[in-house]
Design a protein that fits this description.
Rossmann fold; 7-stranded mixed β-sheet; 11 helices; globular
């Protein structure tokens, strides 16, 4: 599958903080998004799932009885960078929850576990600690895998599931058809680009009518993807189709 990934290098808290300080434009977007979301009544809250494992959720600032909608992000970005516009659009009618998967955003663990099951359990346990008894999951890409697993393990929690850009079963035939249509040889080539041009292609293919950005922004995105996503990608796809 290419170069081996040293998970411990990616996942240490010290390295996480150091890398975060290196990103300018992306961090500016995160700061601005956080400010706007707080004005809309959505604030970050860290939930200890168990000793050593903490999941960051963006949650309603005030207690509400509105239906709960939970947004699950994909490989490239954390929850808010992926779902900020949708969270703002639905905040008036729904109780919006936007978690960061472990090793994304501000969610961390000292465990060696990296599976989809682990991510699903962390999100479900966090939601229950937040008082969410039933919810609609809205998921994108890798979040679809986590969403399907949550619905399987916690049917009493997941009322309904909306999935985009992820199949119910990732078979060889599905993968080969997508590779042919998109012009890639593997999911790794598409989802984890190793060049600025590759990031631009990923952004354009994964969005609708997204404006072209300056190359320095794609470069920052490349660095974020390289740090946050490759270890999770490796653990998800090893033993599957890659």
């Amino acid at each position: 599958m290419g170069a081996q990934i040293a998970a411990e290098d990616f996942c240490s808290a010290a390295n996480l903080e150091r890398k975060r300080e290196e990103y300018g434009f992306v961090e500016d977007i995160q700061v601005f998004s956080a400010w706007v979301l707080k004005l809309a009544g959505i604030s970050p809250k860290k939930i200890e799932i168990e000793p050593g494992t903490v999941v960051n959720f963006w949650v309603p600032t005030q207690t509400t009885t509105k239906p709960a909608v939970v947004f699950l992000h994909g490989f490239a970005f954390d929850g808010i960078l992926t779902w900020q516009f949708q969270a703002l659009a639905l905040a008036n009618r729904y109780s919006v929850y936007v978690p960061d998967f472990v090793f994304f955003g501000d969610s961390i663990t000292d465990k060696s576990e990296r599976s989809v099951e682990f991510q699903a359990e962390c999100i479900a346990k966090g939601l229950k600690k937040l008082g969410v008894e039933k919810c609609t999951l809205v998921s994108f890409s890798y979040g679809g895998a986590v969403g399907f697993k949550m619905a399987e393990i916690y049917p009493e929690l997941v009322h309904s599931l909306v999935v985009t850009c992820f199949p119910m079963a990732l078979t060889d035939s599905i993968s080969n058809a997508r590779f042919h249509r998109l012009g890639f040889n593997s999911w790794q080539d598409y989802l984890l680009p190793d060049s600025v041009k590759g990031v631009e292609t990923l952004v354009q293919l994964a969005s609708h009518s997204f404006p072209k950005l300056p190359n320095f922004i794609y470069k920052e995105i490349l660095e974020v993807i390289s740090f946050d996503s490759r270890v999770i990608f490796y653990y998800y796809f090893r033993g599957k189709l890659i």
